[in-house]
What we know:
The structure is a single chain. By secondary structure, the protein is α/β, with parallel strands linked by helices. It has one domain: Metal-dependent hydrolases (TIM Barrel, Alpha-Beta Barrel), CATH 3.20.20. It contains 15 helices and 8 strands. The chain has an 8-stranded parallel β-sheet, with helices on both faces. Strand 5, helix 9 (206-215) and strand 6 (219-222) form a beta-alpha-beta unit. The structure holds zinc ion. The site of zinc ion (ZN) has 6 residues, from strand 1. Zinc ion binds next to strand 1.
Amino acid sequence: MKPNKEIFIEQLPKVELHAHINGSLSNETLCKLSQLKYGTDAKHTEKYHLLTKMDLIDAFEKFKYAHELTDTPEAVALATECVIRDFSDDNVVYVELRSTPRSTMKMTKDEYIMAVIDTILKMKSQLPSILVKLIVSINRRESIESAEENGSLASKYAKLHPNIVCGVDLSGDPASKKFSDFEPILAKARETGLKLALHCGEIDDQDEISAMLKFGMHRLGHGTFIKGENEEILLKNNEIALECCLTSNLLCGVVPTYSDHHFWRFYKNGHPVVICTDDFGVFSTSLSKELQIASDTFNLSSDDLIKLSRGAIDCSFASDDEKPIVHGKIDSFAKDAIGF
Length: 340
Ligand SMILES: [Zn+2]
């Protein structure tokens, strides 16, 4: 029998704010995508074989494979649907997915983004219990021209689907280009009403962290290397919530153990912090697992976990009409959960 805390966390209505679509493909989803691309031949490939045995493919290989398999609008739609289903199965009631629009031989960036949005719309009727939004990513590895294109696409689709496209993300290799290269694009996106959820402080570059904090953002992803003066600046600014991805940071080797994770420093200081998965497919985790880890490591009570869920929806890019709906779900769970 599962311990009470585990059942409690599984049933808790959860809020996910930092999840990349391509990194959130479970082995089962990758197998489905592999079959979509290669038909029955997929079953004979080495990768397919490895995927059916959990965790045998390393993280980097999984990312590469996910990329390779999502090269048509049909595959992007299937990937998006599976990710939404997996989150919903974990009792996630609100999720902001993020993804970098990609063009391939078989797809334009417009088609990529439309495939994601159309799937979110389709899933609305199939899985009404989960509210799904999209954050358009800009990858630091790409050219500035490509980043500008993604920024324009975010604004274009936010106008067409204001209930779905809610923000812009800056992600990818933090060492590949400077933040200042992307500043004008992000400033423009912010002017058009898009929210900013930026990866920041993934490497120890205090000058860049300082520049990013000065520029401002609505939420900050990771923040692993925010130290000293920058930490003080962030702690003073309660407007910038921190997205913490425990297992992702541990497996990427940027924090030595769960108990060393900076989540605790910010959490105990009352800073808005949200537990997120980052790439649950790649790191073989789930939002329930991450909350369980946080609960075990930092001795969080059931009440603390409910508060984390409530805090997460407050930090989300949901509209003023949508937030009370999610709060209502958490409230009714909290009422029934007495005795856990
Ligand atoms: Zn991320």
